Amino acid sequence: MPRPAWPSPPHRPWPPSRPSEPGSVIPAGDPVGVRPAPGQVRARTSILYKVVGVLVVTLVVSSVVTGVIASQLTSSALSGQADRIATSQLTVLQEAFAERERTLIASMRNLAETVNTEGLFDPARRTDLIAELGRASGNFDLDVIRMLDPEGSELVPPLGIGTTLASSSIFSAAAPGVEPGSRLLATSDGKYVQAVAVPVGGGPVRPVLVGAYLFDHAFAYRLRRQIGSLDNVLLVASGRVAGTTLPLPPSLPPGQEDDPDGDEVGTLPETPTVVRLGGQPSLVAYVPVGRNIDDPVGGALGVALTNPISPLQRSLADARLLASVLLTLVALGLGWVLFRALIKPLVVLAATAGRVAGGDADATFVRRGNDEIGMLARSLEHMRLELRARLELIARQATVLQESSQRIVTAQDEERQRLSRDLHDGIQQQLVVLRMQVGMLQDGIGPDGDNPTRAYDSLGADLDRVIEQLREVTHNLYPSILVDRGLTAALHSYAGRLPLTTVLSCLPEDFPRLAPEIESGAYFLLGEAVTNALKHARATRIDIGLRLADGWLEVTVADDGAGFDQGEGQRRGGLLHMEDRVRSFGGTLTIDSAPGTGTRVVATFPEQIGPERIGPDRSGPEGIDNESATAGPVPSST
């Protein structure tokens, strides 16, 4: 049997158009009933653009987060590197200060040895002592040389080269300050020097020779040249800046914390600290040197790294920005290619779905792989095959429905013709004869014209026969007992008029009333089955059964007649009419027969009429007019 063509009724487009209900709003750009052509995917709904959009957002967010984290890590690393650079430069400064201290101690010891050996401290040789101090100042590059008495005070008159010291009591011969080491001291003109005191000669009472280098701006520049850097050097003494290479020398050391009470010198930071110098962030670090008794703070050497990490940070920021842009472009290009290849099966599935929606039943969903897309393709292919099978079933049912409707109409026409013929040939002819007899009786002619009483009796008997025939015809059309007392009473009445043994059984015994349509359909089907048995089976016994269970009515007609071979062909005639009647209610019809074994007809009807009573195992063609099954005569049993 060739496969039916794909049905596409013009009055039911698929997908159906949406009605414009009152109060409903149709979005702009989404016209009712309009869908894209098969295989066409609109750009604004393509999953590729959505995936790429998500990728872009992910890349931007990840780039921002990565940039912030990298910036923090880079700043921390650069700050640590700057701290190490500052610490390294402080080490160089401290070593340079110590080297100058050692040179100063050696020079002063040599000078003290010369003065003691040559007896230049003798007042008579004061001129020679001054000359020797002048030569030592030039030879050793000393800024200050002072000769002090054993108490650490200036001689009278003062003797020395350079400015006098503001306080020299710590350099008495008995004081602990006379030892191998330098101290930072203030001069009478407000400057600071790095000084070393050396006793001259032996014995408990001996003069003290003090030599010093200036602790000033020149020394700061000398130190910067020595460390070989463009960073600035700070020289701190007694909480003030004694020398620096900064273009605008500050009076107080940068980063110094002032004493809250103002009684003591402020405290320098012990670790590298970021301060602002000249409007730019700078890193300053200090190392203490030259502590003395009068000034516990003493002095310190410091470095100021002007904005040490900003250029590198800007460079790294530019590099990160460029890398982020390049990474985004590469990721977008690669993502476009990869995601396009990834969603290609989805695009193919969407195109196939569009073809199926357009009516192409042979469009196949390609199934590749075992991933989610492959599972989706297999599911869609299963749905397509199921849909095609359902539509083919609907097409076959529609054909059967059309044929059944035609047979019902034909049967109704034939029944009308039979009824018209029976009325014309039977009752009408008898009524015409009766009319003629009445006329003859009026004229006083006829066989009983001389005996009116006998004529009237004969006329009354003929009228009774006509009335009985008319009652039989109306009973066959639709028995009134079926309407008044129900199916079981109508069947008892019908079975009592049959010319053979008939057994009627009902379950339950107290059989309830059903819907009029169901009762009439079952009654006329039973009547047609009994009529077939009387005409063709030559039966001697008929069993009629009614059973109501699980919402379904089962009617049975079994005879002990000749039976027939069901393999001879399709059902036709009365059997086909019976099947059409049952189908119209969504029921089933089963006929079991074989030659010599009789025939058993079993039909099921729903207890209630409605689409909810039509199950998948008992479904019949949709659209049958159930009213067509409520009428039809029971063939005469005579």
Features:
638 residues; Beta-Lactamase; Heat Shock Protein 90; 10 helices; 15 strands; disordered N terminus
Structure description:
This protein is of the alpha+beta class and 638 residues long. The protein has 3 domains: 76-326, 2-Layer Sandwich (Beta-Lactamase); 357-406; 479-638, Heat Shock Protein 90, CATH 3.30.565.10. The protein has helices spanning 47-117, 126-140, 217-227, 310-357, 372-443, 452-477, 480-485, 487-496, 516-537, 574-584; strands spanning 144-148, 154-161, 183-186, 192-199, 208-214, 232-237, 240-244, 273-277, 280-289, 299-306, 501-507, 541-549, 552-559, 588-593, 599-606. A 5-stranded antiparallel sheet has the order 2-1-5-4-3, with helices on one face. β1 and β2 form a beta hairpin. α1 (47-117) packs antiparallel against α4 and α5 packs antiparallel against α6. The longest helix has 72 residues, at 372-443. The relative contact order is 0.07.
